[in-house]
Structures are given as structure tokens and as C-alpha cells.
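Might you be able to review the protein record set out just below?
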Amino acid sequence: MKNKKETMRAVATNRKARHLYNIEATYEAGIVLIGCEVKSVKASKISLTDSYATIASGEVFLYNMHISLYEKKDGFTHYSTRRKRKLLLKKMEIRKLTGKIQERGYTLVPLKVYVSRRGIVKVELGLAKGKKKFEKREAIREREIRRELERIQKGIDK
């Protein structure tokens, strides 16, 4: 019986995405990589800054994800570090996402790249809607209040 919650090792996270967007749903997708790219990803030589996903002709592609060149590779470089990469999702998920993305304000943002227990590289995509400036300030204010309360509680406990 297959374990639903496989243990995973996060290779890269997009922390800025949670600040800039309201994440409404998350999807797990496989990613098509070349052999040297897999080695670089497993060595955590990856950046999700400014990356996004789009749907074109029924397929999902990830843009601007930077995967560094593998240092131990000999010979010439056969891939670009910021090339578009195909994501692997089920047809029903792609149809749902296509409908949502066509609505105003929705986008697909990679939240996390991780390696599953079986050694497969996966991407966690978030269906996101951009936050307004006042929402960002409000989130920061709430976070500061929560931290202050935790400090007070720790002071009382001691």
C-alpha cells in the first residue's frame, strides 16, 4: 500500500510568494528535468525568485526558475539555467486551473520544490491572487502583534 504522505526534503521555498499573494489552493506537480539539472536540484542549487507558471495548449510550463549548472559535469553546457520547464499534472487539474487562471487576478506561483522519498523532484504550485498594499501592511501588523504576545507570555512563564 502506497503511503500518501511521503517524507520529503524541501530543496527551495518561495517565501516571498506567501507575502505577495493569497494562496487559495495548492497542487503537487512533477517537473521534467535533464540529468544534470536533477543533480543540481538535489544539491539545492535552485532559486524560485520571480518564477511563475502558465498554461499553454493544455500543458503547464514553469518560467524563470533558476537551476545552477552542475559543477562536477565535464564537457559543454547543454541547457540554459532559466529555460522553461514542463510541469506534469493530471488533465482534470489542468482544466480546473485553466478556468481559474482565465478569471481576473489569478496566477500560478511555485511555492516549494522538494525531493520525495523515492528521489523524484516535485513542485508545489499555488493558485494565487495578488494582495493589495493595505492587505500586506495588515498581515505585517498582525504578525508583529502575535510576536509581541508570545514575548509577553514567555516573560510571564519565566
